[in-house]
């Protein structure tokens, strides 16, 4: 059962996170990678978009502070966060993400956003 696999993965990530935060700190890149993996499990596996959004935001802020906005890990997190926001239909947060992270691939409208605009504009 896929759901149980994600739940088991989250248990492992949570144990790893506790140790990593204690030894390395909450914003150390390896710690943030564990948080990103947790966000992906919530997003893709469990469809708990609220929890995933919270974790992606934590990783974005941490990566930006530790690595900078232009670092590949920061961009990767922003892309994953964008996909989560699209999946949840949270267009307000998606607009906010675009204002904060102006990467060319974030500036392109997704097919979901185009469909939403067509519905709204009739």
Number of helices: 7
Taking Cα atoms only, what radius of gyration do you get, to the nearest Å? 15 Å
As residue ranges, the low-confidence spans are none
How far is the first residue's CA from the last residue's CA?
Answer: 41 Å
Mean pLDDT: 87
Number of strands: 0
User: Based on helices, strands and strand pairing, what is the structural class?
Assistant: mainly alpha
Bin the helical content: over 70%
- Beta content comes to under 5%
The major β-sheet equals: none
Helix-strand pattern, N to C?
Answer: HHHHHHH
Shape: flat
Topology:
Blueprint: H1 2-24, H2 29-46, H3 49-66, H4 72-88, H5 91-100, H6 104-107, H7 111-121
Helix pairs in contact: 1-2, 2-3, 3-4, 4-5
Provide an overview of this structure.
By secondary structure, this protein is mainly α. The protein has seven helices and no strands. The longest helix has 23 residues, at 2-24. The chain is flat and about 40 Å long. The model has no long low-confidence stretch (mean pLDDT 87).
Give the gist of this structure.
It contains seven helices and no strands. With 122 residues, the protein is mainly α.
Highlighted features:
122 residues, mainly alpha, flat
């Amino acid at each position: 059962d896929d759901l149980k696999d994600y739940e088991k993965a989250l248990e492992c990530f949570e144990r790893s996170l506790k140790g990593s935060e204690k030894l390395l700190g909450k914003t150390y890149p390896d710690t943030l990678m564990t948080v990103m993996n947790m966000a992906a499990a919530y997003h893709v596996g469990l469809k708990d978009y609220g929890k995933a959004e919270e974790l992606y935001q934590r990783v974005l802020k941490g990566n930006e502070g530790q690595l900078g906005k232009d670092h590949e890990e920061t961009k990767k997190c922003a892309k994953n966060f964008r996909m989560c926001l699209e999946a949840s239909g949270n267009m307000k947060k998606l607009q906010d993400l675009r204002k904060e992270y102006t990467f060319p691939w974030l500036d392109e409208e997704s097919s979901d956003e185009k469909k939403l605009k067509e519905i709204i504009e009739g």
